[in-house]
Inverse folding.
């Protein structure tokens, strides 16, 4: 199930997204962050929300780089959405997966020696919706959205 | 005010009296954060500075990793007898850090550069 979802997402054609960044080297994290920022700005998000989206992307990209070695950040704007314009960020990898998703969402939980363990829980707080699918040996997918607020 | 600039490093480090002033004007990407840390430690050791002021006015994104590294740098500096003061956090960055629940451990946070200079002179 989760494996299929990961494969479908990783195989999805690039034209379905506005931004696709392959994460394989540390520099790619900054690239993903920068691209997210630019897209959010173009889509008319407030500076506060642009910063939140860029920060969330930074966290997700770092997790891919650190825990899965390789994966993808895919971002698209959806202007025609029922609830108004929004930006969707998908992080997908074929890494080791997570055995207890509840646990990794606990603030302060980390398996890394130099880290705060607030990445995933932080992304959940910064964005409007957050879904995570993971299976050991298959990989991990995080799907998250931020709606553009009306002023 | 006597100032010395060190070029061809990751960041300029200005020496002001007994402390170091570090205006961070580049996007803090990952390798940069590591090099910044190393450069600062060397500078603290060389100059025997009492305090380091990190001015992050130009920094647009501070994620949990950068937060961690900044706190770690401050912890290292403290062990060398040097305080670390952070100033110039932009409102959207402050908002994001607060929402994520990031606690910038080991760092003294100043309102602005002027306030940071006051805090530095007290240390
Ligand atoms: N893409 C991923 N693949 C495998 N494990 C992951 C992935 N993302 C996160 N994790 C696990 O979840 C834990 C918590 O992640 P996070 O909240 O980002 O904090 P941190 O990265 O600081 O540990 C990580 O320590 C790691 O064990
Ligand atoms: Mg993380």
């Amino acid at each position: 199930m989760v494996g299929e979802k990961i494969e479908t997402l990783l195989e999805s054609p690039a034209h379905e997204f506005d931004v696709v960044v392959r994460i394989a080297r540390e520099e790619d994290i900054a690239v993903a962050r920068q691209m997210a920022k630019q897209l959010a700005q173009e889509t008319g998000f407030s500076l506060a929300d642009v910063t939140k989206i860029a920060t969330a992307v930074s966290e997700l990209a770092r997790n891919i780089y650190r825990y899965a070695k390789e994966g993808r950040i895919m971002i698209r704007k959806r202007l025609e959405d029922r609830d108004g314009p929004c930006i969707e960020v998908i992080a997908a990898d074929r890494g080791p997966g997570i055995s207890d998703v509840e646990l990794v969402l606990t603030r302060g939980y980390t398996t890394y020696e130099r880290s705060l363990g607030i990445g995933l829980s932080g992304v959940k707080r910064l964005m409007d919706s957050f879904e995570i699918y993971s299976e050991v040996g298959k990989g991990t997918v995080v799907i998250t959205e931020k709606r553009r607020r009306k002023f | 005010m006597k100032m010395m600039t060190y070029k061809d490093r990751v960041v300029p480090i200005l020496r002001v009296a007994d402390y170091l002033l570090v205006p961070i004007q580049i996007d803090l990407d990952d390798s940069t954060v590591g090099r910044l840390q190393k450069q600062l430690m060397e500078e603290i050791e060389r100059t025997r500075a009492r305090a380091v002021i990190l001015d992050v006015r130009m920094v647009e994104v501070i994620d949990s990793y950068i937060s961690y590294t900044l706190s770690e740098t401050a912890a290292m500096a403290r062990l060398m007898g040097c305080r670390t003061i952070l100033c110039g956090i932009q409102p959207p960055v402050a908002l994001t850090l607060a929402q994520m629940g990031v606690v910038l451990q080991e760092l003294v946070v100043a309102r602005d550069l002027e306030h940071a200079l006051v805090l530095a002179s007290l240390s």
Remarks:
- Residues A 59, 63-64, 67-68, 93, 95-96, 98, 104, 109-112, 115-121, 140 surround adenosine-5'-diphosphate (ligand 1) (CB under 6 Å).
- The interface with chain A takes residues 27, 29-31, 60-65, 67-68, 72, 91-93, 95-96, 99-102 of chain B (CB under 8 Å).
- Helices of chain B lie at 30-47, 64-79, 91-100, 113-122.
